[in-house]
Automatic annotation (TrEMBL):
GO terms assigned for molecular function: histone H2AQ104 methyltransferase activity; RNA binding; rRNA methyltransferase activity
Residue stretches spanning the membrane: none
Organismal lineage: Eukaryota, Fungi, Fungi incertae sedis, Mucoromycota, Mucoromycotina
UniProt GO cellular component terms: box C/D methylation guide snoRNP complex; small-subunit processome
Highest taxon above the source species: Eukaryota
Name of one Pfam family that matches: HAD_SAK_1
PANTHER family cross-referenced by the UniProt entry: OB FOLD-CONTAINING PROTEIN, NUCLEIC ACID BINDING, RRNA 2-O-METHYLTRANSFERASE FIBRILLARIN
Name of protein: Swiss Army Knife RNA repair protein HAD domain-containing protein
One GO biological process term: box C/D sno(s)RNA 3'-end processing
Domain (Swiss Army Knife RNA repair protein HAD): residue spans on this chain: 50-256
InterPro entries assigned to the protein according to its UniProt record, in alphabetical order: SAK_HAD
Native organism: Phycomyces blakesleeanus (strain ATCC 8743b / DSM 1359 / FGSC 10004 / NBRC 33097 / NRRL 1555)
């Protein structure tokens, strides 16, 4: 974290100053003259409900590979496809309806209208390729900030490669925190009337770090006071079709770049290629257009992750019919959910398809008769329905031919948020025991549970 201009090197300072001089405030496009409060809004999951991949679909290895820079593409936070949410013109016309945290938008509007507040949208997303996406998103909502700060790695307005932007050159700012704190320091130097800072952010690590940062700045008399306002991160509505499409697109473009790499290699046998080299796209090879560090091609494939009892199709519907009234009634009695969150935010989805026995361990026997065996499932209690955790059941299991149920209780998720799939057992639930006469008995089959990962394809040169 930076506190003083002396901690910012010449290159960084030049970039930050060019960003400031390009801002509406510096150009005099606003009527604000001597603002005293700097109000800073993060973009992803603070102002805007940016999508992420759901843990009930994708294996963590695939999610990590998609997020990491230069593995299966530029990396999620450098890849414009992470914000390609549909036909651009249609989204723009409707101001990306359903993708906003309207509570934070309301605070931003008030700040923009306040003559004493200098407002900034500050994000770790790179200037390229995201300025051309983020600015229209903000404009469509009527959010005209006094300054917009996107991480300038790269800074160029017209990069050589107009498509996917890979991390070719060393970063000017090594971290988002370094960029954001430097941006703030440079802004304070340019607008000496600023005395107080208020920041809105959703990420726990950033909230902690910037709370300490503002506290230290106050102690050093750099500012009079600072406040960090934590924002509850809300994902947009569950959209598995979009997730499948974007992941397939990322893998397909990666595979094509690898194919071009090996084609270029075969056509230029005199070039000395090594396994440590990055993969170059033929169309940008003269510009050092780095594409990937993985030289393999991939396809999406299921990965065994858990042991489950898959319920018969009829049982899935029976469970929904039995517990839906309880669920619908009880979620209205819990945490008050804002209208915008109900309309656009990720909600609880009904699944009710399997009993979760635990993570898959391939060196142990499958219980209750083994894989493919018929299992009886007795429902003994349910959790109270709530907006954050949905509703789960506790069940007992036995092999169909056995007389007695085992003593161990297992979880059968009914309604839950897809993003919470891997942490269902960690939440605190209020349990309601079912009377014996209301304890349903269902039929299922022992199976593996799967999530989607990637499988390596044969190399084009093999």
């Amino acid at each position: 974290m930076r506190f003083h201009l002396s901690e910012i090197n010449k290159i960084e300072k030049g970039i930050l100053q060019r960003q400031f001089e390009a801002s509406p405030f510096a150009k005099g496009y606003t009527t604000k003259t001597n603002p005293t409060i700097l109000k800073i809004f993060d973009f992803d999951s603070t102002l805007f409900l940016s999508p992420l991949l759901s843990s009930n679909i994708w294996h963590k290895s695939l999610i990590n590979a998609v997020i990491k820079e230069n593995l299966l593409g530029p990396g999620w936070w450098r890849d414009y496809r992470s914000l390609e949410l549909g036909p651009f013109d249609q989204l723009e016309e409707k101001a990306w309806d359903g993708y906003w945290n309207e509570d934070v938008v309301s605070e931003a509007r008030k700040a923009i209208a306040d003559p004493n507040s200098l407002t900034v949208m500050l994000t770790g997303r790179r200037y390229h390729p995201f300025y051309s996406i983020v600015y229209p998103i903000l404009k469509s909502k009527g959010l005209f900030f006094d300054a917009i700060g996107l991480r300038p790695d790269p800074e160029d307005k017209e990069p050589d490669n107009s498509g996917l932007m890979y991390n070719v050159m060393p970063n000017v700012f090594q971290t988002t925190m370094s960029f954001k704190s430097s941006f703030i320091v440079n802004l304070l130097a340019n607008v000496p009337s600023l005395q107080n800072i208020i920041m809105w952010d959703d990420r726990a690590a950033h909230i902690i770090a910037f709370s300490k940062y503002l506290e230290d700045m106050t102690k050093e008399d750099i500012i009079v006071g600072g406040e960090m306002i934590p924002v509850k991160a809300v994902r947009p509505k569950y959209n598995p079709e979009w997730e499948y499409a974007v992941v397939n697109n990322i893998i397909d473009s990666h595979n094509k770049s690898i194919e071009r790499y090996f084609q270029h290699k075969s056509e230029n046998p005199d070039i000395n290629y090594t396994e440590s080299e990055e993969v170059w796209e033929q169309s940008t090879i003269v510009n050092n257009g780095s594409l990937a560090t993985w030289k393999d091609q991939y396809k999406i494939a299921p990965i065994k992750t858990s042991i489950v009892v898959n319920l018969e199709k009829d049982a899935v519907g029976v469970l929904k019919n039995c517990f839906e009234l309880f669920y619908e009634k009880e979620i209205t009695q819990g945490r008050k959910v804002a209208q915008w969150e109900m309309v656009g935010g990720e909600g609880n989805i009904y699944f009710g398809v399997h009993v979760f026995l635990g993570q898959c361990s391939f060196d142990e026997d499958i219980p209750f008769g083994g894989l493919g065996s018929s299992v009886d499932v007795k429902v003994i209690s349910r959790s109270q329905g709530c907006p954050d955790h949905g509703m789960l059941l506790k069940v007992l299991l036995k092999a169909s031919q056995d007389e007695e149920y085992g003593p161990e209780e297992y979880i059968l998720p009914l309604w839950h948020k897809p993003s919470k799939y891997l942490s269902l057992n960690e939440a605190n639930y209020m349990w309601c025991e079912l009377e014996v006469e209301h304890q349903l008995v269902l039929c299922g089959e022992m199976q593996y549970g799967y999530l989607l990962g990637v499988e390596t394809l044969p190399r084009p040169d093999q």
